[in-house]
Design brief:
single chain, 480 residues, alpha/beta, eight-stranded parallel barrel, 19 helices, elongated
Length: 480
């Protein structure tokens, strides 16, 4: 057989053997804008992106304001090297570099525009050779598209920027308020393949246009990347204006591939909760366009009634909600660890109840032994993903926050408590919590704390406090 025919056939065969998910991941990649997750040019942006389940980030060049240059710390080669090494170590790519300073600065009034984009291209090279830069035209005002003189200046400068980008093997994606027809006309006027549209769903939704029809009309070759979010209101999965399955089908049909970056779509009820907002949006995009990563920790749900499993998962998610990690890969693993602990406890107590029918003493002894032997595994499993203070929060959620509520009550009831007494109260409350976590029901958990409250009261009485009088005085203060 002709060798020139064999090689393409081998490649085609290998492609057929590739998992569909892997091929999808190569086609669509999901990231977040670092300035929107409050990590502009901060080392922590890569770890946060990893926690959110992102493939990468859209790194910003820094503020611009009235300066002649971006506030770009990555101009320093050493700083850039550390940034790149950090990103590589966490498996996070820099998918695009943004000049978001132009949201507020007028391109027609920045005569250093070529130096600014040159700085951006240098940063792209330092961060692994990102091919797309983001340039919003928001700072040019609302009239530039109809003001012929101003539009002429913009198109001339964008042509120069585009040619500079081509020379460096890059494309600059512009953000405009125009629909597909207007953008196609603008691109023809600019006349450079180095300029494309950094497509923004928010603009289309706010203008009342159809995202799918507009993208089809604009064409795949004219879209270099997508800001895959809308106005802050609700998460993408709850936004009636975003038909995500239809958008994916459209992009599939167009043959488009590239980066989808989440810029907004924050829930206004929790607009400052970075992990919950971006975790939810990233997860929804990943679930729609790629496969969301499977949890490392398997859920021990086999053979269990579906309704019971759903209840337990909901209970576990109260803890991940408290940590703002529910919609992240980390949250998925932590929720499974907590759920598995509830399943384990259920199995231990079910075995005890079965053995009680024949030997009650043996049943209780075996139950205590299994509880003790498995108790510390729970902490060890959580420690794979959480810091000590985060594990504390998980335990508090699992025990209805009785530790903090009770401790606060003692401080309010007896304002004269000494530091050593406060410390002893907290020690006993946390000891009670360790036992309560393993209790078989909410009533048993509260009984455990009740016993320790008795111990605390006896301790305080021995140190000269009249608990009854302190409680009555507290009640009077509360009334006032």
């Amino acid at each position: 057989m002709n060798k020139t025919r064999v090689f393409p056939l081998m490649v085609a065969a290998l492609m057929l053997l590739l998992p569909i998910d892997l091929m999808a991941q190569e086609r669509y990649q999901v990231g977040v804008c670092d300035w929107m997750i409050l990590k502009r040019q901060k080392f922590g942006e890569f770890d946060l992106a990893r926690q959110l389940g992102c493939d990468g980030i859209e790194l910003d060049m820094g503020g611009l304001g009235n300066r002649e240059a971006f506030d770009n710390a990555l101009r320093d080669p050493k700083q850039a090297e550390v940034f790149k090494r950090t990103a590589d170590s966490l498996g996070i790519q820099v998918g695009a570099v943004a000049m978001s300073g132009f949201y507020a600065q007028d391109l027609t009034k920045k005569d250093t525009y070529l130096e600014l984009v040159g700085d951006c291209f240098d940063t792209m090279d330092k961060m692994g050779g990102a091919k797309v830069a983001f340039l919003p035209l928001g700072g040019c005002g609302n009239d530039w598209s109809t003001d012929r003189a101003k539009r002429a200046v913009i198109t001339k400068r964008l042509h120069e920027i585009g040619e500079a980008a081509k020379a460096r093997g890059k494309r600059v994606g512009i953000d405009t308020p125009l629909d597909a027809k207007g953008n196609l006309k603008l691109l023809r006027e600019i006349g450079s393949d180095g300029i494309a549209i950094f497509y923004k769903w928010q603009t289309i939704v706010e203008s009342g246009w159809d995202i799918c029809k507009d993208m089809r009309k604009l064409g795949a070759k004219n879209i270099c990347a997508i800001h895959a979010s809308s106005t802050d209101s609700v998460w993408l999965c709850n936004d009636p204006a975003i038909n995500m399955p239809a958008i994916k089908r459209t992009l599939d049909d167009m043959g488009w591939s590239g980066w989808l970056f989440v810029e907004r779509s924050r829930d206004v009820k929790m607009v400052r909760n970075v992990k919950m907002n971006y975790g939810s949006n990233v997860r929804y995009l990943k679930e729609t366009f790629n496969s969301y990563p499977t949890a490392e920790v398997p859920l021990d749900s086999a053979g269990r009634e579906a309704g019971y499993v759903k209840t337990i998962i909901g209970r576990a998610q109260k803890a991940t909600d408290e940590l703002s990690i529910t919609w992240t890969p980390m949250g998925q693993n932590v929720a499974n660890i907590i759920s598995n602990r509830y399943f384990k406890l259920n199995d231990i107590y079910a075995e005890r109840d079965s053995l009680k029918k024949t030997n009650k003493q043996l049943a209780e002894a075996l139950c205590d032994s299994r509880l003790y032997r498995s108790h510390f595994d729970f902490d060890a499993d959580l420690a794979r993903y959480l810091k000590p203070q985060e594990i504390e929060k998980v335990k508090n959620v699992m025990t209805y926050d009785v530790v903090n509520v009770t401790y606060k009550a003692y401080l309010e009831m007896i304002p004269s408590l000494k530091d050593v007494e406060k410390q002893q109260i907290m020690i006993w409350l946390k000891e009670a919590r360790e036992l309560a976590i393993d209790a078989e029901s909410s009533n048993k958990k509260h009984e455990t704390f009740k016993k320790y409250k008795g111990r605390i009261n006896n301790y305080l009485s021995a140190r000269g406090y009249d608990i009854q009088k302190e409680r009555e005085a507290w009640g009077e203060r509360s009334k006032k």
